[in-house]
Design goal:
heterotrimer, A: Rossmann fold, OB fold (Dihydrolipoamide Acetyltransferase, E2P), 2 domains, 6-stranded mixed beta sheet, 5-stranded antiparallel beta sheet, B: mainly alpha, MetI-like fold, two-stranded antiparallel sheet, 71% helix, binds adenosine-5'-triphosphate, binds magnesium ion
């Protein structure tokens, strides 16, 4: 196991957060389903998933605002499960900030300290407001702040308590795109500075990938896959992950044999090589997948060389986006594929109606199960 | 990059504490309810029950104004026999006043909800402002406005529109007074239900139906029905029980059931008859309220 | 003509507002009257004598003070009871919710004559003395429901996340109530109390049944209506009306200005 606790540069106690078989049922509906995971001390952890998949419920259980139906929550090895929200060394940045409208910025930030009976709060509050760059607004009421400022007050109000872990529930959801990018950088900076673990809930995949060192993709109350953003993107283990995180092109086929480290798949009248280590199935039905930017596209008849995977089709749409050209290709078996091609030459070289061959290197291929059940437990990834 | 470790541990027992804490919570709720509901129990429910028992009492022979426990259902027959015109008048006057109030209140409520813009808060204050002035004096002021030599009566008389050549001391004045007094009770619930309607719906209905009135009839009015129902109840009920307007603005022949209750209780000291009248009125209101609850439930009542 | 068609609803709305205020204007005007006979109904001659000598008629100011006393007492008690009920209704699940809602609604749906006469029936049967306490009891009974409704609305309008945030920030349930819930609901409670006071102060019917020989301000007016209402009563009523209106408008105005300032501040940041 990794370190269970330590201390960060700003005097934070940093601790591992462990969820063990955590389950939440609302009447018959399972919102969080037997979730087990460890968030190492000091990490920036993103919980990513579609609306209603149980992200908020998970955070609320960690915060103590919702009682788990089953399971345990440990922080630095100590069991929090039965503690009330106000007894837990965990703080939350709420989805809509939930700043106290009757208190000014200073008092909002001081709230947690005062409730813990700390008398002299002003130095700590001032320092915290400096950290989030709001020093000059301490006497404003929340309603007098812009969205981004409110968001920073919410972060300061939580962080000032030096929580063992900070929970952020879509903290940037209410901001416009530009401010959002700015705040992503800001949050990342603050996290690095204080060193405590951030658990950041979002359904924006780009946000999750740019901010987090670990991303967990959640679906229907379960975690489908977890790991570093690059790894998950490069090697999705389920169809859900492949499609939720970025775009994915797929062709259904059957495993027919193997050759060296690859398995061989017959699909759509062609043969594909998939590295065995990159496939979730070894026999029977399989989905062969590849990311759009890994593809090359040429007119049919062009020599593409040996040892590549290829499908044929017809261009049905070409759109020039500046950095790349995106082609939509109707494949020979009737599926639509997306191809992103760098604009090395000027303008789109292919037009709708052109018969094309789309090809890629086998090591970029991944294999997925066709019925794609949610992967149980977690895919262990190590650095 | 730290290691992510899949964790597998034996399942813990499900927390069993929840039922205990929810019991504790509902005990707090009962403690909070106790003083207020207790008060209503002792000074609202018990009085209504007492009213019922009193309505069945019989006079003690030879001592006027003294009654004893009995089961004299004939009190009800007598009350209805003697005072059915008052009941009929009460319901007619209150009914007319309610319809008038609805017609007058709707445009104002509609305007405040959709068109008032930044004047909305001010207009709402103005709607409740009459409550700051004495009910009795406001009612009495109608004697000045509707006076026989006053402008309104003179004008209408010139057009030969008044059957009795006057308004004051006629049933018209009583209905007008009732309409005026309970108008805010119609405006406020109407406004509350109109305000919940998305203004875009009105625009949409403007697109769908060529004539604005059709759009109103098919979209806005149906959505405002809860307010219409609430406003009707809140206007009709107090109007039906009122005796101030009849007394201050009407002729003696315009007396309503409230007058009969008041006179029998406070002047004749015929408590059983007065109680019977009061209880009949209460029973009628209860029927109306329970019909409403059967349709709409209790959660929106308060 | 087209202008008329387009603004017809606005015109009607203003006319209805005017209609609501005509009798009040009459009362205000008559407070400056020097009536010819004993009835202050038609305007005779301008005079400020009633205003200069507002307590000049025996009984007027005494009854006024009595109404204020009863109003304050009834409002304080009813506000405490009503607020407690509103909290129970919004914050707790309990058995008997439907009956509770009904018990709170019924007094509002019952005509005042029935409320007044049934209480009188009770007081007569248990020989409870009519007068100050009987009326105060009655007022608490009939304003409690209105307080519940007003406070409940405020509580329901409050974001539940604020209390969760407070719990998340180490505030025990008691501290959450004290530092978050109560300060946020307080304006609603004060508004409800104001409403309760207005209802109690102006109540005639229920009071009349249970006052015995006691004379509150409305009871005084009722009695005086037979023999002529003194001009001083008009002056007092006008004074109360304008003071309340100014108070409410000032509160409104302050709120509106604060809101506008906030919007401006947010827009500029
Ligand atoms: N109190 C509740 N009672 C019943 N069902 C609930 C309750 N709270 C949440 N749920 C259900 O649990 C599921 C998970 O909800 P949750 O709020 O955790 O979703 P989420 O992943 O945060 O979604 P979003 O991205 O929209 O915020 C949803 O289907 C929701 O309807
Ligand atoms: Mg959520």
């Amino acid at each position: 196991m990794s370190m269970s606790s330590g201390s960060s540069n700003l005097g934070f106690e940093v601790k591992d957060l462990e969820l063990i078989n955590l389950t939440k049922r609302f009447a018959d509906f399972v919102a969080v389903d037997d979730l087990s995971l460890t968030i190492p001390a000091g990490s920036f952890f993103a919980l990513l998933g579609p609306s209603g998949c149980g992200k908020t419920t998970t955070l609320r259980m960690v915060a103590g605002l919702e009682d788990p139906t089953e399971g345990q929550i440990l922080l630095g090895g100590a069991d929090l499960t039965r503690l009330k929200a106000y007894q837990r060394p965990v703080n939350t940045v709420f989805q809509s900030y939930a700043l106290f409208p009757h208190l000014d910025v200073f008092e909002n930030v001081a709230f947690g300290l005062r409730r813990r009976g700390i008398k002299d709060v002003s130095a700590a509050v001032t320092a915290m407001l400096e950290l989030v760059e709001l020093g000059n607004l301490s006497r404003r009421k929340p309603a007098q702040l812009s969205g981004g400022q409110q968001q920073r007050v919410a972060v300061a109000r939580a962080l000032i308590n030096h929580p063992g872990v900070l929970l952020l529930d879509e903290p940037l959801g209410a901001l416009d795109l530009k401010l959002r990018r700015q705040m992503q950088i800001e949050l990342k900076r603050i996290q690095t500075e204080v060193g405590t673990s951030f658990v950041h809930v979002t359904h924006d995949q780009e946000e999750a990938m740019t901010m987090a060192d670990t991303v967990a993709v959640m679906n229907k109350g379960r975690i489908e896959q977890m790991g570093a953003p690059v790894e998950i993107y490069d090697l999705p283990r389920t169809r859900f992950v492949a499609t939720f995180l970025g775009q994915s092109n797929e062709v259904p086929g059957r495993v027919t044999g193997s050759s060296g480290r690859d398995i061989l798949v017959d699909a759509a009248g062609a043969r594909f090589a998939v590295p065995a280590a990159r496939s979730a199935v070894e026999t029977g039905d399989i989905l062969v997948g590849v990311r759009p930017e890994k593809l090359s596209i040429s007119t049919q008849g062009t020599d593409i060389g040996d040892g590549v995977n290829a499908v044929t089709g017809k261009v049905i749409d070409a759109s020039f986006t500046g950095v790349s050209t995106q082609y939509l290709v109707m494949t020979s078996w009737g599926g639509e594929w997306m191809v992103f091609e760098q604009n090395h030459t000027l303008g789109a070289t292919l037009r709708p109606g052109d018969e094309v061959i789309v090809h890629w290197r086998p090591e970029h291929t991944f294999g997925l199960a066709v019925d794609s059940p949610a992967v149980d437990g977690l895919v262990a990834e190590s650095a | 990059m730290p290691a992510i470790v899949p964790t597998t541990t034996a399942k813990t027992d499900a927390p069993a504490a929840s039922s205990g804490s929810s019991q504790r919570r509902s005990r707090t709720a009962y403690l909070l309810l106790l003083p207020g509901l207790g008060w209503l129990g002792v000074f609202f429910v018990i009085p209504i029950a007492t009213l019922f028992f009193t309505s069945l009492q019989a006079p003690v022979e030879g001592r006027s104004g003294v009654y004893q426990a009995a089961f004299q259902i004939s009190n009800y027959a007598q009350a209805l026999g003697d005072y059915w015109p008052q009941f009929v008048r009460s319901f007619i006057y209150a009914g007319l006043a309610t319809v008038l109030a609805l017609v007058i209140a709707y445009p104002l409520a509609y305007f405040i909800a959709f068109k008032a813009g930044r004047w909305r808060a001010l207009m709402l204050v103005l709607v409740v402002a009459p409550f700051f002035a004495s009910f009795l004096l406001r009612t009495y002021a109608w004697r000045t406005i509707l006076a026989d030599e006053g402008a309104i009566t003179t004008a209408l008389n010139a057009l030969h529109l008044l059957p009795e050549d006057r308004i004051l001391n006629t049933s018209i004045a009583v209905v007008l007074g009732l309409t005026y007094n309970f108008l805010p009770f119609m405006i406020l619930p109407l406004y509350a239900s109109l305000e919940k309607i998305d203004p875009r719906l009105i625009e949409a209905s403007g697109d769908l139906y060529a004539r604005p009135f059709t759009g109103f009839r098919k979209v806005v009015f149906p959505l405002s029905l809860p307010g219409v129902v609430a406003g009707t109840l809140l206007t009709f009920i107090p109007a039906a029980g009122d005796f101030i307007n009849a007394r201050l603005l009407g002729a003696p022949g315009d007396s309503m059931v409230g007058t009969a209750i008041q006179v029998n209780f406070l002047q004749f000291r015929d408590y059983p008859i007065a109680s019977a009248l009061s209880f009949i009125l209460m029973a009628f209101i209860l029927v109306v309220v329970f019909t409403y609850i059967r349709r709409a439930g209790t959660e929106d009542l308060v | 003509m087209r202008w008329l068609r387009r603004n017809i609803i606005g015109i009607i709305a203003v006319l209805v507002l005017v209609y609501l205020f005509v009798p009040i204007a009459v009362v205000a005007v008559l407070s400056f009257n020097q009536p010819e006979g004993k009835y202050n109904v038609t305007f005779n001659e301008f005079s400020v004598s009633a205003w200069q000598n507002i307590c000049g008629v025996p009984g007027v100011c005494e009854s006024f003070a009595l109404s204020i006393q009863i109003g304050l007492l009834a409002t304080v008690i009813a506000t405490i009871f009503g607020t407690m009920i509103a909290f129970a209704l919004v914050r707790y699940r309990f058995r008997g919710r439907d009956s509770t809602n009904l018990l709170i609604f019924l007094p509002m749906a019952t005509p005042e004559v029935v409320l007044g006469s049934s209480l009188l029936a009770l007081f007569l049967n248990i020989t409870f003395p009519l007068g100050f306490w009987a009326v105060t009891i009655a007022h608490i009974m009939f304003i409690v429901s209105f307080i519940v409704v007003a406070v409940k609305a405020r509580l329901q309008g409050m974001d539940p996340r604020l209390e969760e945030a407070s719990r998340d920030l180490y505030a025990s349930p008691r501290a959450t109530f004290r530092y978050v819930t109560f300060p946020l609901v307080l304006p609603g409670i004060l508004g409800a109390a104001l409403l309760g006071f207005a209802l109690s102060f102006d109540d005639f019917i229920i009071t009349f049944f249970n006052a015995g020989t006691m004379v509150t301000f409305p009871v005084y007016i009722w009695g005086a209506a037979q023999r002529g209402i003194p001009v001083q009563v008009y002056a007092l009523a006008t004074l109360v009306f304008f003071l309340s209106l100014v108070l409410v408008l000032v509160v409104q105005g302050v709120n509106a200005r604060r809101r506008r300032r906030l919007e401006a501040a947010v827009a500029s940041s």
